[in-house]
Amino acid sequence: MPEKTFPLPDLGEGLIDATILEWLVSVGDSIERNDPLVEVETTKSAIELPAPMSGVIKTLHAENGESVAVGAPLVTFVTPDDVAGIVGTVPTEATPSRRVRLSIPDD
Amino acid sequence: MQIEVAGADGVVVRGSVFGPPGGAMVLGVHGFTSNAERTWIDTGWVRAVTETGRQLALFDLRGHGSSDHPHEPDAYHLTHLASDAIQVLDELGVERAHWLGYSLGARLGLEVARTAPGRLASLSLGGLASTDPTPERLLALASSLGADDPALTTFAFGVSTDAPPMPDYPVGIPAVVVAGTEDDIASGAAGLAARIGADFVALPGRTHANAVTARAFKTAMLGMLDSIQENAPDVS
User: Fold this and answer.
1) Dihedral class, residue B205 (left if φ above 0, else alpha if ψ from -120 to 50, else beta)
2) ipTM strictly over 0.85?
3) Which of A9, B63, B75, B202 is the most exposed place for a label (fewest CB within 10 A)?
């Protein structure tokens, strides 16, 4: 099954890492895009990151309380072959003015 | 939906409303040195509240974020800050809202409970100090958070001067108080919760800076709102 690994995104303000406060999902969970994924804390603030895609959680790359560098692996999803490539449902809530998202690096 | 409301003294506060029109209204009020976006949007609260069919109205306190920053300390008297929140409810045509406050925003919820309890359907209060801090303590807090806006000095003195008494009696409104176990600002929150007749939820390991995102805070607040709706379907 296809896998996708997402790194900790750039959280802005020159921050280079963040601490995992609490994972809101577990390995094996099937979640939808935009579902709450993880709470992280930087030296500036605490942030809840939404899931960047729909799929099943394969790997959480850090434990609660661990520090993760921006750009380091954060979470790996697997998607069943028959739904791979289908974009998750479009959220119906109004889009906040600024929202940190996870994305796969260009490579 | 964007909102812009002028207070009685002409100071304008700005904010926005999320969620389905007609849903019960929650009013989110942030704390000193923060703003609506950092406290309620970045932290996942908009989704948590709106996915239950409720609305979440947010605004920046005067002296913070996109709202006006008056230069006179008197403009930041606690009663003015509470009055701005009431003006927001008036602008939205909401008689009673569920108050969701963090830190100073929680303190302001208690001020509204003292002066205008009829405007409150419930109180959810996070990171609440049991006594009002001195301006020096507020400024030390601002400094520790890396905030250096000169308006915050004016604000700290204005909000601390002649502040009205904090309720220490049962407020008669469904209420829940939450605080991180490592939050030294809110270390008296459990005792205060008991005095005002609120439930208390401790958030293990959380500090004043990171308790606001906690899933357990959201669960405590939304669980209380659900129980209110079951008991009185017509509320708000």
Assistant:
1) left
2) yes
3) B202
